[in-house]
Amino acid sequence: MAGSLCSEGGVFMKKVLIYGGIALVVIFALNVFLFLFYNRPPDRALFVEPVTHFETEEKVVALTFDDGPTKEWTEPLLDLLKVHDVNATFFMIGDNIVENEDIARRAVAEGHQAANHTVHHDRMIYKTPWYIKSDLRNMDGILKNIEESDRTFFRPPYGDKMVVLPWMLKQRDMKLVTWDIDPQEQYAKSYDPDLIVEQIMADVHPGGIIILHDGRRSDPAAFLHVVEEVVTKLKADGYRFVTVKEGLQL
Q: Using the 8-state DSSP alphabet, how is residue 112 labeled?
């Protein structure tokens, strides 16, 4: 009898291990699938339709800047945009707004759009619903201090989305904004400004959304050179610049 029970127990444990192993493989495969097909691609997301560009044949583009506001990058950038009479969209980090609230207020006062890029620039991948809900709520409060208008535009740090984040954005009726013009040289250690300009000009099209970064990734002078060259060349080619909110109203 005892031998029979041990035998049955052994069979049960074997089944548990087999089915448990299968479950782990399925979960791993599902996560790989989601990561490859829905996490990083800017034009894909679960639950919401990412804003990658504007549906228009008019020669308009949106300049968007992530990771500010900072004194080293954003202040001179605002000076440059003012000289060229260009409005842009700034996906701001909450911590940076708190540290540089005067710069954030200046951006809004000069006609630029301030938008959500999370409080701490954390990767939202695998974050819990409670964490993401808290971050969205806290960031909404930070943006409310500098701008009373629409605060529903969100861009995820590193473009990471996975499952929970887009679901939470849908619950809050927020727009997930990505891009379709992303010069890869801006992520290289070399940060060749002329190559970045070349990559942008090769990909630009009516309704395009350009992603750049006003902080942490480059020498400020090289970054400003990129912006000035892009603005000058696109204006010469007949383009005008809009914020993301304006572009969606075309």
A: P
Residues 134 and 166 in one domain: yes
**CA–CA separation, 121 and 109 (whole Å):** 24
Q: For residue 225, what are its two tokens?
A: 């050179």
Per mean pLDDT, which of 18-27, 140-149, 205-214 is the most reliable?
205-214
Domain, as residue range, for 203 = 60-247
16 and 87 assigned to the same domain: no
Indicate if 184 and 232 belong to the same structural domain.
Answer: yes
Residue 45 forms part of a structural domain: no
Is residue 161 domain-resident? yes
Regarding whether 64 and 31 lie in a shared domain, the answer is no
Q: pLDDT, tens digit, for every residue of 30-54?
A: 444 455 445 567 888 888 999 999 9
Tokens at 190, concatenated: 């070399």
CA distances from 93 to 69, 133, 217, 249 (A): 7, 16, 15, 25
Read off φ and ψ for residue 233, nearest 5 degrees.
-65, -40
Total-model pTM: 0.86
Question: Same structural domain for residues 80 and 31?
Answer: no
Average pLDDT of span 227-244: 98
Residues 94 and 188 in one domain: yes
Query: Which of 77, 140, 134, 135 is CA-nearest to residue 103?
Result: 77
**How confident is the model over 159-174, as a mean pLDDT?**
91
> In this structure, is residue 47 part of a structural domain?
no
List, for residues 95-135, the tens digit of each pLDDT value.
Answer: 999 999 999 999 999 999 999 999 999 998 878 999 999 99
The position carrying tokens 């009726």 is 173
